[in-house]
Amino acid sequence: xxxxxVNNIADADAVLWNGLVGDAYPFLRHEFLLALEQSGxxxxxxxxxxxxxxxxxxxxxxxxxxxxxxxHSRGEYVFDSQWAQAYHQHGLAYYPxxxxxxxxxxxxxxxxxxxxxxxPQELLQLMLAAIKDIxxxxxxxxxxxxxxxxxxxxxxxxxxxxxREDVQFHWFNKGYHDFDDFLQTLNAAKRKxxxxxxxxxxEQGVELLSIAGQHVSAGQWGIFFRFYAMxxxxxxxxxxxxxxxxxxxxxxxxEYILVVFAVKAGQYVGAALSFVGADxxxxxxxxxxxxxxxxxxxxxxxxxxDYCIAHGLKRFDSGAQGEHKIARGFEPVTTYSAHWIxxxxxxxxxxxxxxxxxxxxxxxxxxAAAYLPFKQHARDLD
Length: 382
Description:
Structural class: alpha+beta
Radius of gyration: 22 Å
Oligomer: single chain
């Protein structure tokens, strides 16, 4: 087996790449990574230098890993600025660093893929050995694998990597027949709150329009992008992604995309975009020009729950942060990252930090779970 790095995803054969990654997790698709690079969101200029890793045996592809050489830590959702600062204080360079992740996408999933007959642990060890060797030759400080799924987490843990934890809030479909069936599992106060929020949206004259990505017109993509960009501009920052990125995705992988438009009096007033996986809906982007009571909850959460129930999806991953999701039935789940630090001194210090941080994260998760709105007893007095 031989390890090879490619400088852009266009140099990796799309059929062979997708044959290994499948279609269960849309963010690993060749089309998604290609749109990131061709739109300019991911490039050396933006601090995301593609160095995708292939494992081949002759003409046969055995494994792939999306890989980037980073010159900063923005757009990752796993925060290591303190680590970089510690390096700087000791006169050392933290950047560049390796990142095995999906840019701007804090969604759990596979971070490398192997052909069916290949031992994934053997493949991972080969990949890590190559990364470490290149790091030693090129003054690269570290390798970071963000948001791996549970199966790959155990493989990463078995290699002796440092494991970091965090918390997100996900909704789980427990065989609900419809939205009201889900509401019946909540206590009376939260059930009434959600019904009131949904009612308020319609009382303001706002209707919701759900469109599969392949049916979103060029004009609608332009409207969505303006809403998306507004979310960043309101915070005084620039959006990571461009209109060209979304337009390219709509054409290349629209079947994996769901766009929800909010419409009032024939005018678009907001929009939310999600990606559809094999068993999970991934809520990603949202924006509006002016605020409408409860519209964010309806467009970003309740429409997604409706979709999951109607299409039999098991989970709704609505992205990072958001403690307000707890009252709406989103449960705290642990997310993970794995880290290799080349410098043994910093590796030991970071390992000690992670032990302390893990205790705090687990305590936070337990506290968050105590606020879940599900019925605690057989009887729930309305």
